[in-house]
Design goal:
Thrombin, subunit H, ten-stranded mixed sheet, globular
Length: 273
């Protein structure tokens, strides 16, 4: 019988010294993800805003802003990530190394960003890791990576565990939830677009050896968002959202890269480097 392999979450009690409570002006973080995603039904958007990002796991989910040398629009790109260790953020590889813009010069990481409130401050990183095969063909199988921080903020606010779920177990963990920072809500022209966490839960539609497909509504800015599942009463990341419908892969669903044992091994090894 197949079993689920997992690394557990760390969910500490916040103390009064943890929050930084700094402020961010609207539009200070731009909202331009470089890989499209989709609201499945254009008549109904199921994403709901998270009002309290101090709660677990929302405080571990991070707004990412990548700055590139190639100037396209304002030379920045948005994404989402999630703390998986005290100083390590899991995200999509294309947030770190974009197929056309190249390697990010810097990535700003804002855990639990809630509109203009940065409850745990902001960190800048130039330390990234991603599969070498990602830059060969930019294949979705390898569209995941890590941003390493100089501060171990996860010791104070926690981090989210991750699990490698066998094919025959996905029926037991569905539905799944994606939480991230879309750049189309409250609306594309709203100055707070891309600065509010949203979530949507729905069933898994299909699983391939390396990809999870679902009808969960997403948009630009949510690349790198964790695909979360409840397993034995605890929250785990089972994949990384990184692609939308009508993309190069010819799918009608949004999709992400599965955390399979090989991916789990890579993450575990990279965290130690």
């Amino acid at each position: 019988m197949s079993t689920i392999s997992f690394i557990k979450s760390y969910n500490p009690t916040l103390n009064s010294d943890t929050p930084v409570n700094s402020q961010l002006k609207p539009n200070a973080i731009s909202s331009k993800d470089r890989v499209a995603a989709s609201v499945i039904d254009p008549n109904i958007d199921h994403r709901k805003p998270i009002d309290n990002t101090l709660m677990f796991p929302y405080r571990c989910i991070c707004k990412l802003r990548s700055t590139f040398s190639t100037i396209v629009e304002d030379g920045t790109g948005d994404g989402t990530g999630v703390l998986v260790a005290p100083n390590v953020v899991l995200t999509a590889a294309h947030v770190i190394h974009h197929p056309t813009l190249g390697l990010a010069n810097t990535i700003e990481v804002v855990p639990g960003l809630n509109r203009t409130d940065l409850p745990f401050g902001s960190m800048i990183s130039t330390n990234y890791r991603y599969p070498g095969k990602w830059t060969e063909k930019f294949d979705q199988e390898f569209d995941f990576g890590l941003v390493v921080l100089s501060q171990s903020i996860g010791n104070n606010i926690g981090y989210v565990g991750y699990a490698a779920v066998p094919d025959d177990k996905f029926g037991e963990i569905s539905p799944v939830t994606i939480v991230g920072y879309p750049n189309d809500l409250p609306s594309k022209k709203d100055p707070l677009a891309g600065m509010i966490q949203y979530e949507h839960m729905d069933n898994i539609m299909n699983v391939t050896p390396v990809i999870i497909e679902y009808n969960i509504d997403t948009a630009g800015g949510q690349s790198g968002s964790p695909i979360l599942a409840l397993i034995n009463g605890e929250i785990y990341i089972v994949g990384i959202h990184n692609n939308g419908t009508n993309e190069n892969y010819g799918r009608n669903e949004n999709s992400g890269t599965r955390i399979i044992p090989k991916v789990m091994d890579w993450i575990n090894q990279w965290k130690q480097v």
